[in-house]
């Protein structure tokens, strides 16, 4: 057996020793180009003077292994590149969404701040208007109190004359806005009764309840003005007639009538005379 045939036979029965080319392919340093060169070199015939007498089985095995390693390396590279691209795109989308959400939160916060500012401004304006109205009411009440005439006694200004006037109207009709004769509302009757003794009173119940001096319901005198409601905001007035009674234009059902204080207890009283 010739030496060449002996080597070929041994090559068929043992694993080929890893060459430097195979090591580089496994380490990722060569690509499919190397495999192509290896295959091409294996298939290109040598010159007539250099052709070996016999081919061995070692080169086809090396060529197949190199091609497989090159293909695997290429596939791994493509897969890793695609994964990096997908990850980068996902990161870019997440970053863009985060920016959008931050902008939305800033816009919502600015809108809420503007709304609170508008509400606060409206509340302050309403409070200022209310304070101005209250101040104006206080000034009006103070002016009305300052204009009240001093109490008078005796003669034609006596309380008994006022009582006599309202007693003469007993049985007259009640009519809202009427000032007599024959029909009255509550403040119209009181105004006319004091006009009969030379004292000018304002027209409404609220204004009449501020004139003169406030007196206790336990110390009433004939001719005092009784009022229902608050001083300055009274809704009804009548004349104290003495002996725990009063006379006033009550309502359309009773007209001008006389009643005990217990029939409808007043809130307060003022003394003009």
From TrEMBL:
Residues 1-21, 96-129 are annotated as: Disordered. Keywords: Hydrolase, Protease, Thiol protease. Residues 7-18 have a biased composition (Basic residues). InterPro entries: NLP_P60_dom, Papain-like_cys_pep_sf, Peptidase_C40. Gene3D superfamilies: endopeptidase domain like (from Nostoc punctiforme). It comes from the Bacteria. Residues 96-121 have a biased composition (Basic and acidic residues). Residues 156-273 form the NlpC/P60 domain. Belongs to the peptidase C40 family. This is C40 family peptidase.
């Amino acid at each position: 057996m010739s030496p060449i045939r002996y080597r070929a036979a041994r090559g068929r029965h043992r694993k080929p020793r890893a060459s430097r080319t195979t090591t580089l392919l496994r380490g990722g340093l060569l690509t499919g180009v190397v495999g192509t060169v290896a295959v091409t070199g294996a298939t290109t015939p040598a010159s007539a003077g250099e052709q070996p007498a016999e081919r061995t089985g070692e080169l086809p095995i090396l060529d197949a292994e190199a091609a497989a390693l090159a293909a695997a390396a290429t596939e791994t590279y493509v897969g890793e590149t695609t994964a990096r691209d997908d990850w980068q795109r996902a990161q870019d989308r997440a970053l863009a969404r985060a920016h959008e959400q931050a902008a939305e939160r800033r816009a919502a916060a600015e809108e809420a701040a503007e709304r609170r500012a508008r509400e606060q401004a409206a509340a302050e304006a309403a409070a200022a208007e209310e304070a101005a109205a209250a101040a104006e009411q206080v000034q009006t009440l103070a002016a009305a109190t300052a204009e009240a005439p001093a109490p008078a006694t005796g003669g034609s200004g006596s309380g008994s004359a006022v009582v006599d006037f309202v007693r003469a109207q007993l049985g007259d009709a009640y009519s809202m806005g009427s000032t007599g004769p024959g029909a009255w509302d509550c403040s119209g009757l009181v105004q006319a009764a004091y006009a009969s003794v030379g004292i000018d009173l304002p027209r409404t119940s609220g204004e009449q309840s501020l004139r003169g001096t406030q007196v206790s319901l336990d110390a009433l005198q004939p001719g005092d003005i009784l009022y229902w409601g608050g001083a300055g905001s009274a809704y009804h007035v009548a004349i104290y007639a003495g002996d725990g009674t009063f006379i006033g234009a009550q309502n359309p059902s009773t007209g001008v009538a006389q009643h005990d204080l217990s029939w409808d207890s007043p809130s307060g009283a003022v003394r003009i005379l």
